[in-house]
Fold this sequence. Notes:
Elements lengths: L5 E5 L1 E2 L2 E2 L3 H8 L6 E5 L5 H13 L3 E6 L4 H13 L4 E4 L4 H10 L2 E3 L4 E3 L4 E3 L2 H13 L5 E3 L8 H11 L4 E3 L6 H10 L3 E4 L1 H4 L7 H12 L3
Parallel strand pairs: 1-4, 1-12, 4-5, 5-6, 6-7, 10-11, 11-12
Antiparallel strand pairs: 2-3, 8-9
Helix pairs in contact: 3-4, 5-6, 6-7
Amino acid sequence: MKEMPQLIVMLTYNDMTVENAAEVFEKCKDSQAKYFGMKEEPLAADEMKKLYSRMKKCGKTTVLEVVAYTDEECIKGAELAVKCGCDILMGTVFSDEVNELCKKHGLKYMPFVGNVYDRPSVLDGEIDDIIEEAKGYIAKGAYGIDLLGYRYVADAKLLNSRLVEALDAPVCIAGSVNSYERLDEIKKTSPWAFTIGSAFFEKDYDDDMCTAINKVCEYMNKD
């Protein structure tokens, strides 16, 4: 029996960390979600480090998703993840240097795959090419893949299912999981995890964020 995909709560809106992330986390720390994350902008590094430390003290697994497309920005993002003591680095265009940095510091690296651009991110590319690219990153030692499935310009449902099926490694479907219809698709596809950020702040699941998180967790665990 497959395990249900894990929810990663992103304290982000439109691919940016919300300014009151620490306050939001305190309201949601006792929710059923085990994974919490942020983006690399716009909070100060020291503020992020303090919040990640707080998350860990509350028993959470910590994630930094870096929306970066140049070598310099990707490396800077990876160094921030190390400084913050994160468990998982998601995002960045794959970089051998970032990959080695993650291995050195025990970070689980889940890079973007396909042609990713803009912020909020957009994904394009041929599905077969994306799958082969992902396999190559796993062969190089990446822990898994950050798939911007619902940001894909073509058939997101097909891309999600094909990549998860083709890859013997964790896949996180990140971005725009904003409806129960998409939660149903994720259940069926069965990736390792998925992220929700903006949809919580837009109150797509409930007006209260902690309640919304629990609703999503409970829905995913239903048969």
